[in-house]
Write a structure and sequence with these properties.
The protein is built from eight helices and ten strands. It is an alpha/beta fold. Helix 1 crosses helix 6. The protein is globular and about 45 Å long.
């Protein structure tokens, strides 16, 4: 089901409906500042399993936690004072930071702690921030791609490969009966893939992927 909201002022009633779905172990979909994502509660075993199953991913592949602040992120990730000073002026923004986890990770994703890595996103999206704020917990999330949504379809009349833009109806069609709620904030500009910076090795930044966020603060070169 598609629910429509205003990007900068999402309806609290719809946000509450999303929270109910998450607490019930269901998966929701919505756009962030970079891409559309599927999200579930990291505290719900059915939700986490469903998220992996929908995406067709191996449980050994880790997903990211969407947080609404560095303060929330620090509950689940070991963020040094030096790293905090480096990233605080860049957030919220189009970055995924990888840290060594704390002992506070939900038991359902405790394998992340064994592997000593957890991805953290703090997106510049009022919708994402509001959902996390109301949920009072991070969301476990995975990004969606245009190719994933049109796989196995032949709908050149409604899908435009030249733009590769993702719309809510495409998400609903691709995951009918699998995703309980699709939240559509209307026309928003998404920046593309997030830049991934790995701090899990001695808090020294390692540029894993160049994306929408500048890598210059981490010793990288401008394109």
């Amino acid at each position: 089901m598609i629910e429509y909201v205003i990007a900068e002022n999402p309806d609290d009633r719809i946000i509450q409906k999303a929270i109910q779905e998450l607490k019930a172990g269901n998966v929701i979909a919505f756009p962030t500042d970079t891409t559309w994502v599927l999200a579930a509660s990291p505290h719900s075993k059915p939700g986490v399993e469903k998220l992996y199953r929908i995406k067709g991913m191996d449980r050994k592949k880790h997903l990211s936690l969407i947080c609404d602040s560095i303060s929330m992120a620090s509950t689940y990730a070991q963020i040094s004072n030096e790293t905090f000073r480096l990233i605080r002026r860049l957030l919220p923004g189009p970055y995924t930071f990888i840290f060594e986890p704390t002992k506070n990770l939900p038991r359902i994703i405790e394998s992340y702690r064994r592997d000593r890595q957890i991805g953290i996103r703090i997106p510049e999206s009022k919708l994402a921030q509001r959902i996390v704020e109301f949920f009072e917990s991070p969301l476990l999330a995975t990004s969606l791609s245009y190719s994933m949504l049109i796989e196995g379809t032949d709908r050149s009349d409604i899908y435009d490969p030249s733009s590769e833009e993702i719309y809510s109806y495409m998400v609903e069609n691709a995951f009918m009966g699998k995703v309980e709620m699709v939240i559509d904030p209307g026309d928003i500009v998404m920046k593309g893939q997030s830049t991934i910076i790995d701090f899990s090795d001695s808090n020294v930044p390692n540029i894993v992927r160049k994306g929408a966020g500048s890598v210059i603060p981490f010793g990288g070169q401008a394109d």
